[in-house]
């Protein structure tokens, strides 16, 4: 009878362990999905911003130049929201890595690639600043 009780106790313990692991895997899955969605949206925003920032500056009047400069300043002011998105991605990445799991199968974006994207955007913004001042 005691062996039967031990078997039931061990079985229950195993079940609890498996349920905890299932919850952990579900949490990891949710983090992967959240990162993939946010990374995709961030990259889409970046591609649009890059396209706008790399358009050649061609103006026929001082008013057009003024308008371009105003738009550029508004864009730079809006970067705070993009910085927040980037920081959220970094936090998600850090949380995912804390589980010591493999690559995210929902996206090809990695935090390193997004960091390169962000750094490139900063460079493009500076170049646009120079173009608009010339």
Automatic annotation (TrEMBL):
Record key words, sorted: Repeat
InterPro entries linked: Spectrin/alpha-actinin (IPR018159), Spectrin_repeat (IPR002017)
Keyword Repeat in annotation: yes
Designated name of the protein: Uncharacterized protein
């Amino acid at each position: 009878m005691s062996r039967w009780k031990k078997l039931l106790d061990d079985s229950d313990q195993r079940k609890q362990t498996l349920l905890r692991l299932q919850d952990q895997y579900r949490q990891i899955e949710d983090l992967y999905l959240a990162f993939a969605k946010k990374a995709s949206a961030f990259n889409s925003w970046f591609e649009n911003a890059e396209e706008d920032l790399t358009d050649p500056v061609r103006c026929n009047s001082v008013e057009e130049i003024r308008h371009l400069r105003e738009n550029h300043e508004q864009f730079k002011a809006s970067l705070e929201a993009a910085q927040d998105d980037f920081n959220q991605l970094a936090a998600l990445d850090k949380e995912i890595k804390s589980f010591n799991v493999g690559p995210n199968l929902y996206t090809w974006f990695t935090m390193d690639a997004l960091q390169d994207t962000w750094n490139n955007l900063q460079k493009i913004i500076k170049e646009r600043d120079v173009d608009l001042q010339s």
